[in-house]
Amino acid sequence: MDNTQIEKMDNNSGASVLLADADVAIIGGGVVGCGVARRMAIEGASVVLIEKAADILDGASKGNSAILHTGFDAPPGSLEWKCVQDGHAEYLDICKSMKLPVLKTGALVTAWTEDEEERLQGVLEKGLENGVDDLRLLSRTEIHKMEPHLDSSVRAAISVPREYVIDPWSAPLAYLLQAVENDGKALFNAEVTGGDFDGSHWLLKTRRGKVRARYVVNCAGLYGDIVDHAALGNSEFVIKPRKGQFVVFDMAASKLINSIILPVPSERTKGIVLFPTIFGNMMVGPTAEEQDSRDDASVDKDVLNMLAEKAIKMLPALADIPVTATYAGIRPATERKEYRIIEDTERNWITLGGIRSTGLTSALGLGHHVHTLLSSMGASFEKREHVVTPTVPNLAEHLPRDCDEPGYGEVVCHCEMVTQREIEAVFAGKLPAGSLAGLKRRTRATMGRCQGFYCSARLAELTEGKFEIPLGVGDAHE
Amino acid sequence: MNDILKAGSCDVAIIGGGPAGISAAIELKKLGIDRIIVLERECEAGGIPRHCGHPPFGIREYGRILSGPAYAKKIVADSSLLGVEIALRTSVVSVGQGGLLSIICPDGATELRAKRVLLATGTRETPRSARFVSGGRPMGIYNTGALQSMVYLKNTIPFKRPIVVGTEIVSFSALFTCKKAGIQPVAMLEEKSSPTVRWPISLAAKFFAVPLHLDSHITKIIGHDRVTSVRFGNGHGSEKEIECDGVLFTGKFIPESSLARMGHIDIESGTGIPIVDQYGRCSDRTYYVAGNIAHHSAEVAGKCWRTGKTAAGWICKDLAGQLM
Ligand SMILES: Cc1cc2nc3c(=O)[nH]c(=O)nc-3n(C[C@H](O)[C@H](O)[C@H](O)COP(=O)(O)OP(=O)(O)OC[C@H]3O[C@@H](n4cnc5c(N)ncnc54)[C@H](O)[C@@H]3O)c2cc1C
Ligand SMILES: Cc1cc2nc3c(=O)[nH]c(=O)nc-3n(C[C@H](O)[C@H](O)[C@H](O)COP(=O)(O)OP(=O)(O)OC[C@H]3O[C@@H](n4cnc5c(N)ncnc54)[C@H](O)[C@@H]3O)c2cc1C
């Protein structure tokens, strides 16, 4: 019986049923939870990942900049720095075998004012201190040669050759898929509401039933503090949601830049970035706006206008390029800037909290860190002799897509060239999409210039009966 | 794969099997240009009328009133009688210098070299995103095109009580579709102080019992999974919130000219319409335009039909070496 079958059966039973019994339970299917699940499954633990939404990536991980960071600007010697570097290295290690794409863009830290120019030296030094030894100060001529469309008011820049762009949705999907393929399990629509520790095992309560596990890793992102409260009775940190809005430009803009254009970072944020996406677009963002809500990813007209203007100032040719999409993501920031890793060794509990703005990169590194922490708590697993390595379908624009391979049926989403075969495969796989958003993240459907003008109807048909919240809400004729 | 696609070359390739493309194909055949092909990415030709389940279509072309789908069927059937070949499920993914087209179809990727190319790819409405409308991104936010294809092609509805944004002709068409599908819009919003098209909209709004709010723009779309309400204001500080389960953004047409934009063909800054000379020829003179790709707003099918025919005439002259 595969996981989806088990899940469907569980769905009909009461909340007291035992859904899973595992070595390690991971709360939260954001990129961090998926990375931890993968690592622990490879290390030989039986894992179960518990997600409250109908699909993975329902929190902070659904809207980020998709940059694989080098850690050049991380606090030197910090855990964040270490996990970012480990994550960067491991991603490059596994991307070939898992068919995960990398766009080797490199980044330019650009200075536009005198003050920023002065601060570049510090950036260079910090980079060296962080072991990123290929940073280089560029002259204006060099900048112009690399980025001819960049506004000539740019004063100086540092090149960071190993900052790359990746696919922010396929990566975590691949991580969790690997956990599942190696005897792991994933539960959806299963919000963890509390739990009891009996001295050797946790019994977690979820909306759908119970989960028994020897160890628990709380990767609940934006809800990390709430989950700690519910299970441990207290939390050592408070989540301070910090929203970041983005504007995505038409694919025509991708001709205009080659690298990630970073500002000189400040203490508080990495700042507003102009960058290519792996899907062939170009984006500007994110902002950094404190807010109370943990899930209100609203966009704001004035902010979007500000972002577009800022982008056009840096890259004047953008003025003529239409906007394809707008969105926002929310960072699980806390009252402090560093990662908030809590170990409750008495109660076999680890919390990975406040993974604020580098989690996409550090997730694989955090997986190793969790393994180390669990080992020091006395957990020992027998490393898998045979690790199954699944692959994910390619969504990157610069690599062959499904439509390049004959026999795909029909193209359903014309702007992003998503085929019927691809969509059907999403529902046939081990981690089928649980929502329209999940389907979009697995295929790019409706994410292009027309935003569903042409394909919504066909998508409604192809997804009928698949989602709790369907596209169609009734028949057309009363 | 179709013979012309197999051969990899032809006299005229027409991108888009809507009214403009089909009419051009028919005219070219009549003018004796035989090696032509219509490339259409959908599973059926006919373009937008396929999902405009209401009259009036066909007055100019056939002197009778047809519904959109009946009209689409008729133009396709007529073209087939004349031997026009329409390659379906065939997407043109890029256009190159001198009429070289990159094509993707279920039989595989291929290239086609055409002596002349007609861009007849139509127009679409501006989606919510490009309008920079504040608020969340729940389900239930659509354009008229999506609504109409859901209703008329798939017999399903995306909402029951939406707010309709815009007062163009297409907004009128949207009200019609709602009525037919059992959808009751709760309000119609227009940013300007008067409707874009005057009489039919005010009349229609009254007829369909949809309150029309002028001087009104959305300040926030609210809802987690689905839209639950919309807040709108008049720009002078007064705001209203109306409960609804969807938002329909109508009109603000933008030409489907991304092939030109992504390629080498000059487009008008701002509108995105390919720049043409008096013959409808683009900056690369092997390319022509017809139909709604060449218009600032969505013109009716009859007019697009006519521009397709005109373009065919020029292309024919051009191939005979009669154009400068
Ligand atoms: C605007 C923005 C830009 C960014 N850019 C980058 C970048 O370029 N590069 C980079 O490396 N990082 C970037 N990041 C950071 C990265 O996205 C985050 O660090 C990462 O997403 C955090 O992931 P997470 O798994 O900790 O949290 P989340 O993604 O929030 O995952 C937590 C999951 O737990 C689930 N959950 C919550 N409560 C419960 C419960 N009670 N029971 C069960 N499940 C629960 C949620 O539904 C959610 O799916 C960016 C972030 C933002 C917001
Ligand atoms: C929502 C909406 C409602 C409308 N309602 C009416 C109405 O009620 N009455 C009326 O007269 N007019 C209406 N119109 C106007 C309509 O656009 C015209 O009737 C007419 O369809 C325009 O003809 P066309 O051939 O220019 O474009 P379209 O009919 O849009 O045809 C373009 C064709 O090109 C194809 N295509 C596009 N790109 C590619 C590519 N790269 N490769 C291959 N094929 C491609 C498309 O699939 C499509 O079939 C409406 C328009 C819209 C958008």
Main features:
heterodimer; A: 478 residues; alpha+beta; FAD/NAD(P)-binding domain; D-Amino Acid Oxidase, Chain A, domain 2; 3 domains; eight-stranded mixed sheet; five-stranded antiparallel sheet; 23 strands; 29% helix; globular; disordered N terminus; B: 324 residues; alpha/beta; 2 domains; seven-stranded mixed sheet; five-stranded parallel sheet; 9 helices; binds flavin-adenine dinucleotide
Structure characterization notes:
The complex is a heterodimer of chains A (478) and B (324). Chain A has 478 residues and is of the alpha+beta class. Chain A folds into 3 domains: 3-62 and 169-239 and 336-376, 3-Layer(bba) Sandwich (FAD/NAD(P)-binding domain), CATH 3.50.50; 107-161 and 240-331, D-Amino Acid Oxidase, Chain A, domain 2 (2-Layer Sandwich), CATH 3.30.9.10; 402-477, no CATH class. Helices cover 29% and strands 22% of the residues of chain A. Chain A has helices at residues 3-11, 31-42, 79-98, 114-129, 140-146, 170-181, 224-232, 301-314, 359-376, 420-428, 436-443, 456-462; strands at 18-27, 47-50, 67-68, 102-103, 107-111, 136-138, 156-160, 164-166, 185-187, 192-197, 202-206, 209-218, 242-249, 260-263, 273-276, 282-285, 289-290, 323-331, 340-344, 349-353, 411-413, 418-419, 474-475. In chain A, helix 2 (31-42) packs across helix 9 (359-376). Chain A is globular, with a radius of gyration of 22 Å. Mean pLDDT of chain A is 95; it is low at 1-13. By secondary structure, chain B is an alpha/beta fold. Chain B folds into 2 domains: 9-124 and 254-319, FAD/NAD(P)-binding domain, CATH 3.50.50; 127-251, FAD/NAD(P)-binding domain (3-Layer(bba) Sandwich), CATH 3.50.50. Chain B has 9 helices and 18 strands. In chain B, strands 1, 2, 3, 4, 5, 6 and 18 form a 7-stranded mixed beta sheet that branches. In chain B, helix 2 links the parallel strand 1 and strand 2 (36-39). The model of chain B has no long low-confidence stretch (mean pLDDT 94). The interface between A and B is large, with 53 and 55 residues. Bound molecules: flavin-adenine dinucleotide (2 copies). Residues 15-21, 39-42, 47-49, 52, 57, 91-92, 120-123, 144-145, 148, 170, 173, 256, 259, 291-292, 298, 300-301, 304 of chain B line the site of one flavin-adenine dinucleotide.
